[in-house]
Structure formats: structure tokens, C-alpha cells
Amino acid sequence: MPSIERNDDMSMELRNLSSFLAVAKVLSFTRAAQELNYSQSTVTAQIQNLEREIGSPLFERLGKRVTLTDSGRRLIRYAEKMIGLEREALTVVSGDSEPAGAISIGACEWLCGDLLPRTIRTLRTRYPLVALSIRAGACIDLRNAVSDGVLDVALLVEPKVRLPEITVDVLESESLVILAPPDHRLASRRRIRPTELGAESWLVMRTGCSTLDLLFKAIIAAGGSPGPVIEFGSFEAIKRCVAAGVGLTLAMHSVVRSEIEAGSLTELSCAVPPTRMYVQMVRHRDKWLSPALASFFDAVREEVSQMPWRGRAPQPESPSCRG
């Protein structure tokens, strides 16, 4: 790949970085120009200026195909930080009393079906000037994005986060339950032994799930053998596959409440080994709490206070899978 001579007399312009992020998102100069309402030649010129400033190509152009170079991939997180800092500065200087501006939000799949939509609806109704960018994903990826400053805030469901650079607001907690289709062979059983779960397939969003490891240890300790694990890209797909009889899964009761009430899923009478999960709102400790971000925090807390897991009685210790 040919090198590009760096111009040390130039400084990166934010509009060039904005165009870079637009192209990096869609991997198309034409589509990025349409989204930015620029001509394609303008976007091309901005990227070329940025490449000269950095001294390295940011994209590889192979015919009509556009891909990011290593330099381009490394630049993304810094470009997002710089654009975000500009927005923050404009918000502070403007002194507007009404929350406004853009905030980037991450949410794990479990919360994308109920809590997040409720929160967005509340926020959009009260503060229409707040622009939201939503990213769904695995908790570890969202946590890393908050640590790197890519996301302003993330809503997670996992064991308590303890990282020095992260501020954690624990909103609620709930134990996990085993979910099955209503016609499952164990659905009507009042006491399920660990060995009876050994032959089942388990559906997860990420392999290496620590909560599943605890259940597998209980099965092995009772003399059973854990069944195969199937990884999916979304929790919605997992729910549908469990309902179809593909396998079992672990989840918080509250996130599948509607499916249980509708009869497409059922909760097995088998206590999961102690696995309490925490609904958490996390942000970087150095992240400025803008009026827009503060309004999001308030909306989340309000919606959590009205969520169905509030007041849900804990699962009884017996019947259990302890043999």
C-alpha cells in the first residue's frame, strides 16, 4: 500500500472527522455523501485531506468495494471522542435550560425488549431535542465501549461491574430462571434433578457464559453430562428457538414475562445455582454529566421503578436442582 506524506502544518478538522465516521459506518463514499448532504467529491476531498494530515491511508478502495485500513480502524474511537467533545462544548457554552444534544447509549439484548423502549419513549416525550444513538450488544463489548469513551452510557445485566474507571448505578437485581417450551417433558415436574437436564441443548448469546458454567457444574457434580451449547446473535432468536423446542436457556423472569404470560415459554421448577444478575447503568467516571445525559438517567430510573420485577418474590429454594 502506498504511503502518504504527512503534513505536520495541518490540524484535523472536525468536519473531516465527521465525514470519515460517516464513510466508516456505511463503507461507501456515495451513501455517506447522501447522508451528509454533501457531494461525493466533497467527501472524497475531506477524506484525502484527513489522510494527508495523518500520513496514512484510512480506506482501501478495491473497485467499488471500500474497507477500513488498520489506521482507519484505530482512528474511529478517537474521532468519536473528538466529535463528542465538540458536542459537549457546544452544550455547555450555549447554556440552554432544556436538555438537548446527542447521547450514545448501549444496551444489552435483555433490556432492548422492554426497559430501553420505555425509557426512549419517556425521554422523547419530555425532551424532544435530545438525539439518541442506540447500540445493542454483549455486555462485555458495551462495557469496553464505555471505558474507551465510545459510548456515553450503557445498560447492562450481569454480575456487579467493578472497574476503577467506571461509575456504576445498580438499578435492580433478579435471579435467573430456566426457560423451556410449555410442552417440554419436564414442564409439569415439581422437582427436577440435575441429571435430568444433562441431555438438553442450551441456547446462549455468548459462549463461555459464567452463569451457564455454574449450572453445568451442578449437573456434573450430580453425575450428569451437560448437553451442547448453541450460540445465537440475539436474544429474540433464542426466545423463538426455545419456544420451538430447540433447547433451554437461562434468563431473568422479567425479560420474558410477556412470553410466559402468553404461554409460549414456561419456567422450569428448578432453582438455578446462586446466580443473581444486576441491572446496571454505567458510564466513565470522567464523563461529563450533560443535561441530556442526566435526563436519560432520570428516565431510566423512573422506568425501572415501574418494571414488573419490582416486588417479585424470590424463587423458592425447593424444589431445586440440588438433587
What does this structure look like?
The chain has 323 residues and is α/β, with parallel strands linked by helices. The chain is 38% helix and 20% strand. It has ten helices and eleven strands. It has helices at residues 14-26, 29-36, 40-54, 70-94, 115-126, 139-147, 210-221, 235-243, 257-262, 291-304, and strands at 59-62, 65-68, 101-108, 130-137, 153-158, 166-180, 202-204, 229-231, 249-252, 266-267, 276-284. Strands 3, 4, 5, 6, 9, 10 and 11 form a seven-stranded mixed β-sheet that branches. A two-stranded antiparallel sheet has the order 1-2. Residues 310-323 have low confidence and may be disordered.
List the helices and strands and how they pair.
Elements (H helix, E strand, L loop, with lengths): L13 H13 L2 H8 L3 H15 L4 E4 L2 E4 L1 H25 L6 E8 L6 H12 L3 E8 L1 H9 L5 E6 L7 E15 L21 E3 L5 H12 L7 E3 L3 H9 L5 E4 L4 H6 L3 E2 L8 E9 L6 H14 L19
Parallel strand pairs: 3-4, 3-5, 7-8
Antiparallel strand pairs: 1-2, 5-11, 6-9, 6-10, 6-11
Question: Which spans have pLDDT < 50 for at least 5 consecutive residues?
Answer: 310-323
- What share of residues are in beta strands? 15-25%
Alpha carbon gyration radius:
24 Å
Mean pLDDT: 83
Order of helices and strands: HHHEEHEHEHEEEHEHEHEEH
Structural shape: globular
Strand pairing plus helix content: what structural class?
alpha/beta
State the end-to-end CA separation.
63 Å
Please count the beta strands (DSSP E, at least 2 residues each).
Answer: 11
Helix percentage: 25-40%
Q: How many helices?
A: 10
**Main beta sheet:** 7 strands, mixed
